[in-house]
Structure formats: structure tokens, C-alpha cells
Description:
homodimer, about 450 residues, alpha+beta, Aminopeptidase, Alpha-Beta Plaits, six-stranded mixed beta sheet, four-stranded antiparallel beta sheet, about 35% helix, about 20% strand
Amino acid sequence: xxxxxxxxxxxxxxxxxxxxxxxxxxxxxxxxxxxxxxxxxxxxxxxxxxxxxxxxxxxxxxxxxxxxxxxxxxxxxxxxxxxxxxxxxxxxxxxxxxxxxxxxxxxxxxxxxxxxxxxxxxxxxxxxxxxxxxxxxxxxxxxxxxxxxxxxxxxxxxxxxxxxxxxxxxxxxxxxxxxxxxxxxxxxxxxxxxxxxxxxxxxxxxxxxxxxxxxxxxxxxxxxxxxxxxxxxxxxxxxxxxxxxxxxxxxxxxxxxxxxxxxxxxxxxxxxxxxxxxxxxxxxxxxxxxxxxxxxxxxxxxxxxxxxxxxxxxxxxxxxxxxxxxxxxxxxxxxxxxxxxxxxxxxxxxxxxxxxxxxxxxxxxxxxxxxxxxxxxxxxxxxxxxxxxxxxxxxxxxxxxxxxxxxxxxxxxxxxxxxxxxxxxxxxxxxxxxxxxxxxxxxxxxxxxx
Amino acid sequence: xxxxxxxxxxxxxxxxxxxxxxxxxxxxxxxxxxxxxxxxxxxxxxxxxxxxxxxxxxxxxxxxxxxxxxxxxxxxxxxxxxxxxxxxxxxxxxxxxxxxxxxxxxxxxxxxxxxxxxxxxxxxxxxxxxxxxxxxxxxxxxxxxxxxxxxxxxxxxxxxxxxxxxxxxxxxxxxxxxxxxxxxxxxxxxxxxxxxxxxxxxxxxxxxxxxxxxxxxxxxxxxxxxxxxxxxxxxxxxxxxxxxxxxxxxxxxxxxxxxxxxxxxxxxxxxxxxxxxxxxxxxxxxxxxxxxxxxxxxxxxxxxxxxxxxxxxxxxxxxxxxxxxxxxxxxxxxxxxxxxxxxxxxxxxxxxxxxxxxxxxxxxxxxxxxxxxxxxxxxxxxxxxxxxxxxxxxxxxxxxxxxxxxxxxxxxxxxxxxxxxxxxxxxxxxxxxxxxxxxxxxxxxxxxxx
Lengths: 450, 450
């Protein structure tokens, strides 16, 4: 594959850049048409790469792309999952270059989606192209590329149920995660789930002059802050009643295995420019993000937020709050527990509304599976180092659903790096990872059998 | 004056509407030119009303307007204070009509500034016009109209020091406050001061993916909420060290006098649509807003606040926080105490910046003064009821400064009503109050002597 990449490098980058130029932001209705444009572009790429068929399928939300090449029904079938939708680009003013006009700087592509997930799914399309063109594969290979991952995949599970036969596979292959570092390749063997809610706290029925009413009327921003503060105690435990009921404590052995992954707290703090890490008492940083649930406010707003000052006691305050869950916690149950708890801690003088956004459950992948072993062998050959198993802190909720619908395990070969700052301004993807990812994927097919 | 109003009503409204159409928002630099337009319009109105002279004076910020008519140096001199700047109109979508296109509905003028303070200062200009045209006055009357009240009058005090002789007066007459109700006219005999700060809490140096980092890195929004929550304890006391040191407790007698003002808690709650009032333990609602200091978050923002969901652990969170002060508390000292305290409660893992906005001290006005007595007599004649003394919760910080510079007490004859919702969408001013305010002001000159 190295040779093939060298010969086709410029074309590959042109094709990827075309994908990245499409502002396929799934959460913003203004980009509805861009989603369709992006889906059509992927069909084009799959057909050009050698798929027997590929097409755009409508769903209740944004469309999915499905394409495949069948060789031999007796051979294993791999379903490649990816998503072509991206996160919003706000705060846009912090981008050093246009998020929709990819730019190569210091060996990395800078653009929204450069890594997550356009860059990573593109590696699969090109590894597929190489294998087909060179006659090096006889697995059956399918692609399912969705446009709603960043908003919690509200349509795919239903569509997958209706197209179970089309999607039937032995394993799902996914590149939508990170590895520890270029020097420490790793394979994700578990991910967290997610429950995401939006809350609204209303005090008086109109904005008030804070001089005339301040001190006597409950200020909904102060109330919201108090309620949020109460959600986590001094030991970093989430206080929602029943929140930890389904959390399985890991054995000392499992914790020791995960602790093998190298972690340098000093480097971590320097990378983030923080003077201290923090979190649940009794757990390491890697455990706090890998095997423990957590709660974060993702957004908050209320009152006067413009230039200057305004002495207003506002009518309403809002926050977006999400909880990362561990396997065995049910995201719908947790969203319900949150709502009950949050309502119960509202002080007199305000009314509270909780609206659930998307959610999904976490999952675990057996390290002993043939697919995990093939991936490990492929990556060791490319990186020269045996990859370590790790637990991802992020969530791809749809994979837990798909695992159940298709009865096939997902394998997470992610080539992203922390430095890529996905979801943030200046998202990037190292060219070296793009090329090595393609090589690893191509080798995976060489080593994988049922 | 009743007769004169009846004859000139249409012209009066046209003139006021012209003033209200000018978007003179002092806190937004985009409106810089509108401030000058508005100042010039006021000069025009003062000269037309009969001032000997009136002109726009530049300051370091927005210009002030000064105009006067001198009769007899031996007679009392009254300095009318008002402000022509207005609050921003956000949230604009809640306005039922254009805030800069005044509309009369159900006997009230709806527009930004209809009451605060264009509508109220206009009453003084027209009462002045009437008195001059009819030869009914021989007080010396001066007007000082500033354009920075809503941003804390950063320039007027310095300008006043430089123009002390020009402004010299026996009393300052101000209509920039409310009365209890049309059936319970009242005169403000004290106002609260104000300390206003903006805070910034920074965690990691970039927005992070909340899945990858959530649980291990301090989230600045959660930290800000915790810090804000800690500013007020369960009894409604502000926890800032030294905050109450200079607060003078009122005597039982004083509290009893203020309690004479009627207050219907049921009506109050219905007006605001809240199920409970709240505040500092041991004080009534009127005391909480009139004679006790308080702390309110006026605005908060951080993270993703757009449509949909984004799983971000943000780099930074902000809030605008103001404290209402009582007479004898020094606003600069309080701002300093706030900063020290707020820095001291910051958790490890975040950096905090506190930026002071404007501030001002509170003040008290002697009820036994000839000016208070004249105002009370005038209002009793117009409303048929003796006005009650009240304490205002709002702040006109500049008046405390002017009192000191000019050695003259301010008299607050305010004709606003709670229903006017100043600083909020759909600010209004009752026509009946506009006309009765003019009458009361005209009568004040009849009864006032040194």
C-alpha cells in the first residue's frame, strides 16, 4: 500500500479536500442541503474505488450512504462504519484558517472534519480502492456512512433494523477514535455512553431591573448555578440519586491492565495549560475518562451577555448538560434520573424544564477476538510496536445499538491523536497518520479471518 | 398646567416620539453617533422651551447637554438632572413593537426609553416651557442631561468638577425612579449603590471533546457555577469577607416608617408569575430591595449555546455580576473585596480574572428638607393623596458623586411604575403619569423656596 499511496498521494488529497469543503453540520438546519451533497460525493468515491453498488438512502433525518463489494459468501463480511457529518465550527474567530478550506501546515491537514470523521473514513475508502484494484482481497466489504453521528444518530438504528439483511456482517470496522500517541499505538476496547439534556430555569415572567427587584426575587442564573453546583459533591461524585446503581466496578486486575497504557500527567497538564487535574476521588486521570462516568456543563447562557454592562435580573437561564456513562448504564434511565433529581433540587421561586437531547449506551469489545488480533498485528507491522488496549472516554452511541441489531462486534481502529483537537477550533489530522492508517487497514484485511 | 397640556398634547407627543426614535444606547459603540444626534435634539428642545442658552459639551465619553434660564441670583437655583442614554434592546424578539418606533397601546407609550429616562426628563422640559411661557416662575433653572447613566456615568463626575460654577445649585431635581403605584404616590428618599464586575474563568487552553477529557479536567462552567453558588449562603447572606462591615442597621423606628408603604405580596408574586419571594433571612421584600445590599448575576455565558447539542468541555466561562449597596458602603472597596474573595475561592485547575465595570455609592435624602416638602405638597395636589417616603432599590451612582461635588441634595420625584418594565422588552410609560408628572413638577416650583 505504501507504493500505491506514493503514486496517488496528490489525487487522494484532492479528493479528501473536496469532502472537507462541504459544510455538513448535522445539528444546524441551514446545512440540510450540504448533507445531501456530501452523501452524493461519497457514493461517487465508493463507486470509483471499486464498489459494485453504492447509493444514498433517505432516512427520517439526514441520508445514509451504503455501498458494497461482494466476493464470496463463504468469506467474512466486514461492515465499515463512518460518519460524514461534522460538529459546528463555533467559535469561528479562533480558527487560524477557514474550517471549510483545508490547509496543510506542519504536516497536518487543518479543516473541520479533517479527522472526525471524514479524514478517518476516507482511509477506509482508499484502502478498499487499493485492495480491489490490486486484487488483494476476497472479503465481502460493506460501507455504511451516516450523517447524524454528531447529533446522536437518531435515524440510523431504525434504518438498520429495516435493512438488517443488507448490513449483515461478521464485524463492524470503525475509525472514529484516537490512539494514545504515534509512539504508543492503541486500539479502543470500550467506549462510554452519553446522556445529554438541556435545562431551562425560569424565575420572573420578564426581565427585571436588578436594582428594583434584586435581593427579593430569585435570580434564575443564581438558581441554575446553585443547582449545577449541587450535581457533583466535594469528592467528585455525581449526586443524582441512583446514578451509580448500574456502574460495574472494575477488578484490580482489569485496572492494572489498563494502567499499562503510558500516561504523563506533566505533559497532559502542559498540553492543556492547567495547573491541576481533578475529578472523582480514588481514580487516576485515565480511569476518570476511561472507566468512570462524569457530568459536564457543555454550555450555559442567560441574562445580558453583550458588550458593556446591563443591570438586569433575567427571566430565564439555560444550560446544556451531558453525562458520560460506562457500559451497563442505560442512557434513557440516566436521563430520567437526572430530570427527577434536577426538578427536586429547584428552589422555590423558579420553574424548571428538562429536555433530553440524544443519548447512547457504552460498550466493551473482547480483546481475544480474531478481529482485535488482526488489527493488532496490522498496526504492529506499520508502527513497529504492539498496540496497547485502551478505553475511550468518548461515545459512539450508535455502535452499541448496531452491535445489538446486527449481532456483530465493532472494532475501533482509530488513528486520531489528542493534538487533533476535534470538536474544537483548528481541528487537524496528521498526514503521517492518514497514510499509516490506510496501510494498517489494508493489512487488517490480510490478517483477518473468522 | 392641565389646560396647557390639553392645548399642546399632540405637539408634546410628537416631540417626545422624535427623541424616542433615536437609538441612543450608551453601552454599544455602534450607537456613538446616535448619542450626538440625541444630545443636539435636546438642545433644540431646551431652547424652544425658553432656555437662555443650551449647548452640547463634549466629555471623555458621550456628550452632556447643559442649558439654563437665570432669573434672579437671590432666588433658589434648581438643577434638573436626567439622562438621554438608554439600555440595549436585547432580547429584541420579545418586543411587541419596534423599540425605536413609539406606539401608544392601552394608554401607554411603548418604546425603549419611554420611561427611562427620556419620558421622565421630557416632563421637566415641558413643565419648564409652561412656567416660562406663562411667566409663572422666577427660580433659576438649570438642566444637566447626560448620556452615560446606563453605563455608570464614567465621565460626568469629572466634567462636573471642571464646571462646578456652571452647575452650582441649591437642589438637584431628578425624575428617574418609580412611585409605588398611581394610587400610592411616593417619593424616593434613598437609593442603593452599585458595584458591577465581569468575571472570566479559564480552564484548559482550548475547547476540548467532553468525552475524551470529561471527568478529569476541571470544566470552567462547572467551576464558575460552584463559585457563584458560594457567594450567597443558605440564609441569603453574601459570603464575601468584609461585605457587611460598613452596612448600617436601621433602627426599629426607621423600619416601621418604611413599612408604612403598602405592599401586597400576593399581587407582587402574580405580577412576576413566581410562586415565592426569597432573599436575606429576617427582612421583608421591601427591605430586601430598599435597605439591604444584594448580589445578582446579570449575565452568564460559556461553551456551546447554539441550536442542538455539542459535546464540548469549554476553555472559558464568563459572568457579569453586580452588587447593590446601601448608603455607607463604598463601591470601590466592595469591588475590591469581591475580587479578592472570588480569586480565593477558585478551585485548582482554573484561572480567574475579575474586571470591574462601573460602580457608585448609595445615598439618603432628608425628609425634612424644604424640597422634599414642596414635592410632597405638589404631588398631593395632583394625586389627591399624600405621597409616602420610600427607599429605592436601584442606583443612580452619579447622584451620590454630584451631591458631594455640588454640595446639594438630590430630590427624586419619580413617576415610573413597576408595570413599565424598564431595562426589559416592551418598556412603557403611562400617558396619565406623563401628564401628572408634568403637573406635579410645575407645582413643585410653586411651593419650593429655600
